[in-house]
Amino acid sequence: MGNWFRSGSPWIWLTGGAVSLSLVAVLGLLLLIGWKGLSYFWPAPVYQFEIEQGGETTMVIGEIYDRKSVPVEQLAEAGIDTRHFTGDKVLRYMVKTGNRELPGSDFITFLEPYIKSQSLAQNVMVMDRLKNGRFYGFPVSLTDDGMAIPLEALPDSLLQATEIREQIKLLETTELAEINRQFEQLRRDQLRRPDEPQNHQRKAELEAQFQSVTEQLQALHQQLDRDILTMREMSGLEVDISMGQVLDLWYPNELTTGGKFVHWLKQVGKFIVDEPREANTEGGVFPAIFGTVLMVLLMSIIVTPLGVMAAIYLHEYAGKNTFTKLIRVAVINLAGVPSIVYGVFGLGFFVYMVGGTIDDIFFSDQLPAPTFGTPGIMWSALTLAILTLPVVIVSTEEGLARIPNSVRHGSLALGATQAETLWRIVLPMASPAIMTGLILAVARAAGEVAPLMLVGVVKMAPSLPIDGHFPYLHLDRKFMHLGYHIYDVGFQSPNVEAARPLVYATSFLLVTVIVGLNLTAIGIRNHLREKFRSLEQ
User: Fold this and answer.
1) Are the CB atoms for 388 and 407 separated by under 8 Å?
2) Same domain membership, residue 115 and residue 180
3) Within-domain flag for 525
4) Which of 23, 94, 267, 442 is deepest in the core (most CB within 10 A)?
5) pLDDT of 496-525, one tens digit each?
6) Could you give the 3-state DSSP secondary structure of residue 274?
7) DSSP secondary structure string, 333-344?
8) 330 and 387 inside one domain
């Protein structure tokens, strides 16, 4: 036994077991997040409950959201009459009924002993809307500008409403946005040249264009509200809903397995490509995906050359003296600084100092409204570049140290300068290590939230950092981020229960984005490693 311990075998098994447990835990967590998030988009069956409580019978229609066993003793302490309950525990149902504008809540809870009957609701429709979440009910009638039309025309009416909404969005994001941009440019020109006669003519032309676009939008909105669908909800109340507010509708209890899968794919696609609604508790997360990926790419472009140049100086040029040792100690200490400290530094140095100076020099005509002296995606990328800089420096320096000195000496002996040796020989051979540092930097930066809350990320961004107007990439704009979206939906949402599945879905999407970025970098690193393997040998 003593020889076995001295051989080191127990520690090998212990280390292997710890690694295996860690992998199982990580995979289990990913599976849990994926299941909780992706199952939200599956069309759940809608049940009809007949509840008898206190001598009154009510009808409840909705999806079973949660079941939980509750001790009878706990219910009795809460003042509930439990004399007719059997057993020590009873089930408490939480049913998602939607129709938020009527009862004021998406959910109803009741105890199993109060259920008089339970069955699948027949001909029930689930409707996804722009406001107030989902609506559960039974279609009664459909009218077009007051004239009754068959309910079979619902798909055509929904398609027409979708097309009109797209036209409205196109007008608002193209022509109306361009007019507003020209109005802002005209305001600046009037500040610089207040007596210019052409300014009055330009203003009149822009006002005429604005009036024309406004009339087009009004006509489209009137056309959008022509079709009215009358629905009967669970209490028997009939509610009129404009088809302009309807995004999608389906009969969940009548869908086949294939139909449910197609519906699931469509809902997942909408979640990825749509914009958020209802304080981020509804809709998609495309702006957050776009902002996360763009910020990570900008950070990578900034941190890679800075980290590589710093590592080259420390390993190839700096002497082994006290100053170099202090720099190495500083780099190591920077890796342990809390991320929120970097956020405070970015806000004070990049935003207020650098950005404020840029505004004073180049954008003085727009003050007091700042352009670069306010949080934006460029300052966020720079802040995260400083945060991840030590990782790239250490990884690159380790890669440079693995290259034999004989390679450098051979290049110098052939007449190459030290700079040519670094550029043509050393750096290509160290590129796999550089990519390793970049992979670690991306993995950390993509999940950071605390510093971004100070230097650029917002709950809702009015527009993407990229559009069709010069300079096309607007680095001064604020942006959305998947990590902050998770925090906002999970902890700041006015409807926590309804938003909880979106927390899982967005978390799974963030992990997927990070894995995708890392796999891309790993593929490049492996290609470079194979390319320069012969030189290392």
Assistant:
1) no
2) no
3) yes
4) 442
5) 777 888 899 999 999 988 888 888 888 888
6) coil
7) HHTTS-HHHHHH
8) yes
Question: Three-state SS for 518?
Answer: helix
Answer positive or negative: Cα dihedral of 421, 426, 429, 432: negative
Domain interval for residue 102: 47-128
- CB-CB neighbours of 504 under 10 Å: 20
Q: Is 116 inside a domain boundary?
A: yes
Say yes or no: 203 and 311 in one domain. no
108 and 148 assigned to the same domain: no
Taking the complete model, does pTM exceed 0.85, yes or no?
yes
Q: Final residue of a domain: which of 89, 104, 128?
A: 128
Please tell me the predicted confidence (pLDDT) of residue 468. 77
Give exposure, 456-472, as e/b (b: 16+ Cβ within 10 Å).
bbbeebeebbeeeeeee
Give the model's confidence band at 159: pLDDT under 50 very low, under 70 low, under 90 confident, else very high.
very high
| Length of the chain, in residues | 537
Measured in whole angstroms, the distance separating CA 388 from the mean position of its chain's CA atoms is: 21
Q: How far is CA 22 from the centre of its chain?
A: 27
438-447 average pLDDT score: 88
Looking up residue 309, the CATH number of its domain turns out to be 1.10.3720.10
Q: Is 133 left (phi over 0), alpha (psi -120 to 50) or beta?
A: left
Tokens of 380: 């966020």
Give the model's pLDDT for residue 5: 67
ω into residue 194 within 30 of 0, thus cis? no
Taking each helix axis as running N to C, give the angle between helix 9-38 and helix 496-531, from 0 to 180 degrees, rounded to the nearest 10.
Answer: 130
Domain count, the chain: 3
Six token digits for residue 331: 């780099």
Give CA 520 to chain center in angstroms. Answer: 20
Does residue 273 lie in a domain region? no
Q: In this prediction, what percent of the chain has a pLDDT beyond 90?
A: 40
Q: How far apart are CA 524 and CA 439, in angstroms?
A: 10
Query: What's the mean per-residue pLDDT of the chain?
Result: 88
323-362 residue pLDDT tens: 888 988 888 888 888 999 999 999 999 999 999 899 888 8
Coil/strand/helix, residue 65: strand
Residues 462 and 400 in one domain: yes
Q: Are residues 154 and 72 in the same domain?
A: no
Does 149 share its domain with 222? yes
Strands 238-242, 276-277: pairing is unpaired
Compute the 3-state secondary structure of the chain and give helix, strand, coil in percent, each to the nearest 5: 60, 15, 25
What is the mean predicted confidence (pLDDT) over 365-382? 85
- The closest alpha carbon to 57, from 135, 111, 114, belongs to 114
50 pLDDT band, cuts 50/70/90, is: very high
Same domain, 110 and 145: no
Is 80 part of a structural domain of the chain? yes
Residue indicated by tokens 């967005």: 506
Q: Label residues 264-297 b or e (16+ Cβ within 10 Å = b).
A: beebbebbeeeebbbebbbbbbbbbbbbbebbbe
The label of the residue with tokens 């202090």 reads: 326
